[in-house]
Prior knowledge:
Structural class: alpha/beta
CATH topology of the largest domain: Rossmann fold
Order of helices and strands: HEHEHEHEHEHEEHEHEHEHEHEHEEHHE
CATH architecture of the largest domain: 3-Layer(aba) Sandwich
Distance between the termini: 52 Å
CATH class of the largest domain: Alpha Beta
Number of strands: 15
Number of domains: 2
CATH superfamily of the largest domain: Response regulator
Largest sheet: 7 strands, parallel
Helix content: 40-55%
Number of helices: 14
Strand order of the largest sheet: 2-13-7-6-5-3-4
Amino acid sequence: MSHRARLAATASLVTLTISLTACAPATENSACLLPEHAPAQEALADLEGEVLSKGPQGEDPVSADTLELTDDEVNQVKAKKATAAIVMHYTGDDWTAAQLNGLKTRFSELGIEVIGVTDAGQDPSKQVSDIENMIARKPDIMISIPTDAVATAGAYRRAAEAGIDLVFMDNIPVGFEAGEDYISAVSADNYGNGVVAAHLMAQALQGEGNIGVIKYGVDFFVTNQRYEGFTETIRNEYPGIKIIDERGISGSDLAGEAQNAANAMLLRHQDDIDGLWGVWDVPTEGIMAAVRTAERGDVKITTEDLGLNVAISMAQNSGVAGLGAQRPYDQGVAEATLAAYGLLEKDAPPYVALAALPVHHGNLLDAWQDIYHQEVPEAIQESFLECTPPTS
C-alpha cells in the first residue's frame, strides 16, 4: 500500500471512530462547555486582531490586510502570463483544501496558471523529488511548505537558482534569506493560536485544574510556536492550572498516536486530569476518541484548527470546548498576492501573518464561513444543538 493510500485508509478509520465513539452529542439545551470566566474572556477580547508570532528568523509580523495591488499592477501581472507550482507537505485535510482554494482563486484573478499541485505525504525525500519535478516544468512561481527545513533546503536552493520566485507557507528552508532567496513567508499567528487555546482552556476550567499536553514530537516551527504559546500562557497567567503530563507524537497516524497518548494520560492520572490540549485538529480527533472511550465527558479539550470532525463535535456541544483557528483561505490569497509582488519586483515584507480567531460553540457557524469562505457544511448544521450558559 502506498504512503498516500495508508494515509487515506487511516483517515477513513479515524473518521469512522470519531463518528461512532467520540462525537456523541449532548442533549438540546444542555450546559455549554464554556462557563463565564472573566480573566480568560477579557484576555481573549484584548487579543482580537493582534498578531503575537515572530517570523521564522525573528521578523516582526506584517498583517496580510496591508497587501495590495493596484489595478495597473494587476494588469501588469496578467500580461506576464505567468505559471505557478504548488508544492505541499500533504493534502486531503480541511486546512490544505482551504489554502489551495485561496491560492487558486487569487491566481485566477491575476491571470496566473497553476501547472501542478504536489503532495509529499509528509515525506521530505518525496518533497525533494516533487520540487525537482516542478523545476523541470519551469514555473515562474513556486508556493510551498517545507516538510523538513534541513532536508529540503538543497532542492529549494536549486529552484531559487533556476529563477523561480519562492513564497513559503509557515516554514522556510535552513539558510534562506527573505528578499534574496525567497519573496516572503506567510503564516497564521501560531503562537497566538496557542495563546487563544490556553485562554479557552482556562475559561472551560474556570482557572482551576490539571491538564495534559499532546504536542508534535518533530522540530517544526509552527507547531513549536503553538506549544510555546499554550504552555507559556498557562504557566504565566493561570497559576491554578497545572500541566501534569506532556507527550509528543509523530508518524503518519497522528490521530491514532494522540489517542494512545491520551489513553495513557487518562489511565495514569484517572480523575486527577481535567483537560487535554492537542496541537491541531487531526491529533485532537484521537484525543476525543480517548475521552469518549474512557467515559470522561467532563474532560475539557482545546486545540488549534477548525476541521470538520472537530467542528461537528463542537456543534454537538460535546468534546472540544474551544480552539484557536487559522485562516487558511486568506493565507492562500496572501501567498498568491506576494507571488505577484515577486513578478513585479515589488518590495515585499519578509513575514506576513494572520491573527488567530477564537472559535467555540457560540460563534462556530459564523467562524466557519469566515475561515473557509464557504457555506457551513450540512453535517455541521444538522449536528448543531443549542446549549444553556452554565452558571459559574
